[in-house]
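Wed. Picked up where I left off yesterday with Lipoprotein. The coffee machine is broken again, so keeping this brief.
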Amino acid sequence: MRAKTFLLLSALSATLAGCGTINNSLADKTTQIEYFRVYDIKTTASVSKLGKAASDGIGKDINDMQSAYPIDTSGDVPVKPGHMNLKNPFANSALAAFTNNAGNIGFKIATCDGAAWTSTSQRDFNGSFGHSLTLCLFPYQGGYQLDMYGVLTEKSGIFHPDRYVSDALLGSPKQFMEKAFADTLTAIHQNVPNAQIEFVRGEPQPGPLPWVSSTALGK
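Structure written out below (tokens, as returned):
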């Protein structure tokens, strides 16, 4: 009797474990990941040359982009570069509870006061994943600082079967996001002669590029 009970419980446990695995694969999931990278670019090239190179690079990986060349009326080149700021326009409003709930990174806007070139872009692959990117180029007396901010949104589950197709064709969403960053830097490296590109800081840590040095981890 005890043996039969043990076998019955074992079979029931295996069945429940199998159901849990199946349910996990079918569950509709949305995951958001933030990316932030800062690069120092030492060059005497014009901002228009760097902006075009960056636009050409990131243009390989997006399907909608807006860029701008703001004018600095002061005429002074700062000693130190500016930096990107992330702000939630609803931070002090009743909407804050909805935009910053658990499981959501919230609604953030990247502002680039003092930047000489800015770009915002998006890419969506049939709703299975997508990313948004903001790039800001800050001039200073030693060259430029390039701030890069991105949000990757991944969707998976029974309602997103095209995700498997996109992974097979393009690689994983994380690989595609890293490719967007790498293509931007590669275009600057190839089209701005003698530009010295250095990784300053960022999360997640980027993979190595042979011509990019680093002041951060892994130098």
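Quick read: Residues 31-214 form a domain with the Double Stranded RNA Binding Domain fold (CATH 3.30.160.110).
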